[in-house]
Design a protein that fits this description.
The structure is a single chain. By secondary structure, the protein is of the alpha/beta class. It is built from five helices and seven strands; from the N terminus they run βαβαβαββββαα. It is globular, with a radius of gyration of 17 Å.
């Protein structure tokens, strides 16, 4: 059995990866499982750079092959913002962050509110160059939050094919179509081929 560090402290994220990697000869660990307290700074200007920094940094600390991801929201009308700054956009969090995004877009009509969630996964293995895969989920920014599921920008992210926001669909459905799920399935294909 091969070991793989998932560079997260989030048990929910570990469960998502475990479900997608089911059937592979892998034993998954989190940073907490290995007692790693260090935080690798996300100082890159792209999702790929941040994912690579974390994958290589945590591989160096653990000695294990490491998977790390970076993801966020890109809004076309805002020139791709908030992008890599999604988690700290506007210097606020939670409902205040949703309101901050809505305030930035108050003059933008429905047809110009296109956005996408992006997830880049970096897989770092000793003796190999990091491998990158990407998942994207297109949508539209709503005029007000809708739904109580999910987290982050999910209540504002309307999926045209679902006729609902990410916060209005089931967790199972979200985990099958999300940007992270798409990238994770691509990472699974790499892991399955050694």
């Amino acid at each position: 059995m091969h070991e793989l560090l998932i560079a997260t402290r989030n048990p929910g994220k570990l469960r998502e990866f475990a479900a997608i990697f089911a059937g592979l000869d892998l034993r998954l660990h989190t940073l907490d499982d290995l007692g790693i307290q260090d935080e690798i700074e996300e100082s890159g200007t792209t999702f790929a750079a941040n994912a690579t920094l974390k994958a290589e940094g945590y591989m160096a600390l653990s000695g294990l092959p490491t998977l790390a991801d970076d993801s966020g929201l890109e809004v076309a009308a805002l020139g791709g913002a908030p992008g890599v700054y999604s988690a700290r956009y506007g210097g606020v969090t939670g409902a205040a962050q949703l309101q901050y995004l809505l305030d930035q877009m108050k003059e933008i009509p429905w047809h110009a509110r296109l956005a996408r969630f992006v997830c880049v996964i970096a897989l770092a293995r000793p003796g190999h160059a990091p491998q990158l895969v990407e998942g994207r989920l297109p949508g539209v920014i709503e005029f007000e939050p809708k739904g109580s599921g999910g987290f982050g920008y999910d209540p504002l992210f309307y999926l045209l094919d679902e006729h609902a926001t990410l916060a209005e669909i089931t967790a199972e459905r979200k985990n099958s179509i999300s940007h992270r799920a798409i990238a994770a399935r691509a990472a699974r294909a790499i892991l399955a081929h050694g």
